[in-house]
Amino acid sequence: MTSVLLLFAPVAAALLIPMLANRVRGIHTGWFVLAVPVLLFIYYLGFLPQVKDGGVHIGELSWIPSYGISLTSYIDGLSLLFSLLITGIGALVVLYSIFYLDKTKERLGNFYVYLLMFMTAMLGVVQSDNMIALYGFWELTSISSFLLIGYWYTRDRSRFGALKSMMITVFGGLMMLGGFVLLYLMGGTFSVRELISMAPELAEHSLFTWALILILLGAFTKSAQFPFYIWLPDAMEAPTPVSAYLHSATMVKAGLYLVARFTPIFAASEVWVWLVTSIGVLTLFWGSFFAVKQTDLKGILAFSTVSQLGLIMSMLGAAAAAFHVEGAAETMFKYAGFAAIFHLVNHAAFKGSLFMIAGIVDHETGTRDIRKLGGLMALMPVTFTIALIGSLSMAGLPPFGGFLSKELFLTGMLSLGELDLFAPASWGTVLLVAAWIASVFTFIYSFYFVFRTFTGKHKPDLLPKSAHEAPAGMLVSPAVLGLIVVAIFFVPNLVGDWIVKPAVAAVQPFMYGSPSDVDVHVAAWHGHITPELMMTIGIVIAGLALFSLLPKWQGLYRVFPEQLTLNKLYDSTMIFAESGMNRLSRSYMDGLIRSYLIYMFLGIVIIGLGSLIAKDALAVSFEGTAPIGPVEVGLLLVLVAATATTLVARKRLTAIISLGAVGYTVALLFVVFKAPDLALTQLVIETVSVALFLLAFYHLPKMSRHDEKRKFRIGNAIIAASVGLLMSLLAMSSVSQRALPSISEFYKETVYSEAGGGNIVNVILVDYRGFDTFFEIAVLSIAAIGIIAMIRLRLTRKGDGHEKQ
Amino acid sequence: MKSSDVILQTATKVVFFLIFLFAIHIFFAGHYTPGGGFVGGLLTASAIVLLLLAFDLKTVSRALPFNYTIMIAIGLLLALGTASASILFDVPFFTHAYDYFDLPLFGETSLHSAMLFDLGVYLVVVGATMNIILTIGSDD
C-alpha cells in the first residue's frame, strides 16, 4: 500500500509548491521540488535486488470494489525500469530547470505543479495493473503535457501546439479506453495480470482484433507513431526541460510501455506483430528522413525522437513475433525484445542530454535556428563535448551505448527477414532495407545536429546574444547523462542483468520464466565480422558521404508539396470541424423558443407513439375505472370551453384569464377525485402564475399569432393534437393493462411504520422519493437564476456593447 | 405598478397574515395531513404576491427586506445537508430519522429530519418564485 500512496507523493508535494513559491522568494522553487524525484528514485532503487531475480511487488488500494476498480502498484521489471527513468531523469530535469528558468521572470509555481502532476500521472501509468486506473493516469499525462506545452500561454504557437497534442493524444486515449472495455467484456476483469494469465482464451474471442487495434491507436498516438507523430514537433514550444523530460524520455514512451505490457496478451495475433513492426519501421524511416529537413535544433530532435520511438516500436513488434517461433529463446529471435528495452534506456540517456544541450544553446545564444549557429566549439567546449557524445551515440558509433543497441536492432531486423509466417517472405526484407536506410539518415541528422551547431564559421552578428559557455549548474545534468551513455558501452551486461533482463522477462513471459533465463550477452566485438557489423560500416560510409554532400541535396525537401502534408490535414480537419459544427448548430438553433418547443414536442410524440406501437402496448379498456357522474361531465365541459377560449381569444387579457380558468377547473377535478394535496397545490400555482402573468403583462409583445401563415398554424395544430392524442393513449393504455401491482399498497403499509408520517403524498416527496424532490428544487433554483441572468444581464449588456466580440 | 385601492390595501393587511399563518400551518402539518413544504412555500409566495398587487414593489421590498437569491442557496444547502448528514451516521444517503419527544406546550410531538429537508424545499420555493416574479416585475 505504501507504494500506491507514494505514487501520489509528487502531487502531494505540488500542494505545497504554490505556498513556497510565494513565501520563499530568495531560493529557486526548483530546489524544494528536486527532493521529490530524488527520494522516489532512491526508493525505487531499493526494489532492484528483488526484481532482478524475477520478484514482483504488489501494493493495492481498493477504490471502487463493486466495479473491480482498484489502485494497484504492480512493480515488475518493466514498470521498475520505467519508474527509475521517470524519477531519475525527472531529478536531472528539475536540476537543469533550476538554471534554465529564471526565478524572477517565470511563473515557477505553475511550472513545478504541472511537472509534479505529470510525475504522478506517469508513475501511475507504468505501475497500474488495473486498466481503468491506467486509463485515468494516461489521460492525466495528456493533460499535464497540455499544460506544460502551453506554459508560455501568451504565445500563439504554444497554445496551438498544446491543443494539437491534446486533441491527438486524448483521441488515442479514448480509443484505448474502448479497447480496455472490450478486454473487460472478454475476460471479465480489469486486471492486466489476470488478463495475461488467460491470454490463450482471449485470442479465440471475436472481439480480440478490435481490442488490439483500439489499444494500438492509444499507443501510436501517445508514442508519436506515423501518422499521429505530427503533434510532437509542435510540442517543442514547451520549455526545454519539459521537452527533455516529457517529449523524449518519458511520456512519449508511454505508448511503448503499453505495447510492451500488452505483448503477452496480443502476441498471439499476427495483426499485432505486423502492425507494430511495420508502423514502427515506417515511423523510423519517416522521422529520420524528415529530421534532416528541420532548421530548428529542437525540431531536429523532435523528428529524431519520432524516429527512435519507431525503432523501439518495431523491435517490440519483432519481440512479439518471437511468440510464433518454436524455441525462440535459442535462436536469434531472442534479441529483439532485449534490443527494444536496451535501446529505450540508451535513448532516454542520449536524447535527454541532447535536448538539454539544445536548451543550453538556445539559452546562451538566443536562437535555435541552425542556419544562424555555427562555430560554437571554441566558445562552448564543455557543451560541445557532451553534444558530441550524445550525437555519436545516436548515430550508433562506438564507444557509446547507442552502438550496442543499434547492433542489437540490426540483429532483430535480420531475424524478421527469416520470419515467413504470415506475410510473404519478401516483407521482412523490405523492412530490413527500410531500417538500414533509416539508420543512414539517423547518422546524417546526428552529424547535422552537432557539426552544424558547433563547427563551421561562427556568425556572431546573427545571434541575439553573444555566445558563451553555460553556467556549471546547467551542465551537470547533461554531463551526468553523457557519462551514462559512455558507461553503458563499457558495462552493458551490468545494465542488462539488473535492468533490461527483468523487463524483457515481463514483456516475453511466453519465452522466459525468470530474468536469468534471458540468454543475451552484449558485446561490442564478437571476435569475427558479423553481418550487423558489415551493415554498420555501410551506414557510416553512406552517412558520411551523404552528410558531406548535404548542401547539394537538402533542397530536395522543398519539392514536397506543402498542401499534402499531414499537418495540413490536421489543420483543415480542425477548421472544418469548427465551422461545420457551427453551421450545423446554427441551422436548427434559430433562437426562437417556439421552434425549440416544436423539436421537443415532435420528439416526444415520435418516441412515445413509436414505442407504444413497436411494443404493441396500445390498449383501451374501461374496466375498473370510476363512474362518470354529472359533476365530472360539467367540469369537463367548462374545461374544454375555457381551453377553446384561450385559443381563440383576440386579447391577451382574455387568454390569460381563461387559461387561469382551465387551471382552477383542474383543481376542482382534483377535489372531486379526493386529492386534497394536489388540489391545494394546483390552486396556489394557478393563483401565482396568473399574478405573474399580470405582472409581466406590460412587457409581453402584441398578440400576433393570428397573423401567422395558415401552413404554420396547421403544422402547430397537428403537433398539438398529436401530443394530446399521445397523452390520452398513454394514460388509457397504462390504466388498461397493469404489468405490476400498484405501489400504493406498499405506501399505505409503510408510511407510518417505516417513514413515521401520515400523509403519503408528502412523505413521497420528502422521503420515499427525496432524491427527485432534491433535483426538482435544484432545477427550480437554476430556472430562477436563469431568469435573473436573462433579464438583468440583458439590461447591462445594452450599455457597454460586449455583444460584438 | 402603483395601486391606491384602499379597500384592497386594507383587506390585504389582514389577509396577508391569514395566508401566511395558514402557510406555516400547512407546512408543519404536511407530514400527517395535506400540505408540506412545496405548498407552504407557494402559499407564502402568493401572500407576498398579494402584497405586491395591493401596494408596489418598493414598499414591499422595504417591508420584507429579503435577498431571495440567498434564500434559494440556504434552502438548497439545507436540503443537501439533511440528505448527506445521514452519511455521518453510516447509513445510506438520504436516510431520515425521527422520534417522539415530549415538548412543553406541544405535548408529545414527533420530530422528523424530513422536516428539515422540507424546510429547504420551502425556502427554495419561496425564493425561486419571488425571484422570478420580482425580476420580471421590476424589469422595464
Automatic annotation (TrEMBL), chain A:
Annotated NADH:quinone oxidoreductase/Mrp antiporter transmembrane domain residues: 128-420
Domain of life: Bacteria
Protein's UniProt keywords contain Ribosomal protein: no
InterPro entries for the chain: CPA3_Na-H_Antiporter_A, MrpA/MnhA1/PhaAB, MrpA_C/MbhD, MrpA_C/MbhE, ND/Mrp_TM, Proton_antipo_N
MrpA C-terminal/MbhE domain ranges (all copies): 713-792
TM stretches of this protein: 31-48, 81-101, 108-126, 132-154, 166-187, 207-232, 244-266, 272-292, 299-323, 335-361, 373-401, 421-451, 472-491, 533-550, 596-614, 626-648, 655-673, 679-700, 712-732, 774-795
MrpA C-terminal/MbhD domain mapped to chain residues: 638-702
A GO cellular component entry from the record: plasma membrane
Keywords carried by this UniProt record: Antiport, Cell membrane, Hydrogen ion transport, Ion transport, Membrane, Sodium, Sodium transport, Transmembrane, Transmembrane helix, Transport
NADH-Ubiquinone oxidoreductase (complex I) chain 5 N-terminal domain mapped to chain residues: 64-111
GO biological process: proton transmembrane transport; sodium ion transport
One of the record's GO molecular function terms: antiporter activity
Keyword Transmembrane: yes
Similarity comment: Belongs to the CPA3 antiporters (TC 2.A.63) subunit A family.
NCBIfam families: 2a6301s01, PRK12645.1
Name used for this protein in its record: Multisubunit sodium/proton antiporter, MrpA subunit (TC 2.A.63.1)
Species assigned in the record: Bhargavaea ginsengi
TrEMBL record, chain B:
Membrane topology: Multi-pass membrane protein
Positions of transmembrane segments: 12-32, 38-57, 69-94, 114-134
Na+/H+ antiporter MnhB subunit-related protein domain ranges (all copies): 7-130
Coiled coil location: none
Statement: the UniProt record of this protein carries the keyword Ligase: no
Subcellular location(s) of the protein: Cell membrane
Entry keyword set: Cell membrane, Membrane, Transmembrane, Transmembrane helix
InterPro entries found in the cross-reference section: CPA3_antiporter_subunitB (IPR050622), MnhB (IPR007182)
Pfam families in the record: MnhB
Superkingdom of origin organism: Bacteria
Annotated Gene Ontology cellular component terms: plasma membrane
Family in the record: Belongs to the CPA3 antiporters (TC 2.A.63) subunit B family.
Alphabetical list of PANTHER family matching this protein: NA(+)/H(+) ANTIPORTER SUBUNIT B, NA(+)_H(+) ANTIPORTER SUBUNIT B
Protein name: Multicomponent Na+:H+ antiporter subunit B
Organism whose genome encodes this protein: Bhargavaea ginsengi
Biological classification of the source: Bacteria, Bacillati, Bacillota, Bacilli, Bacillales
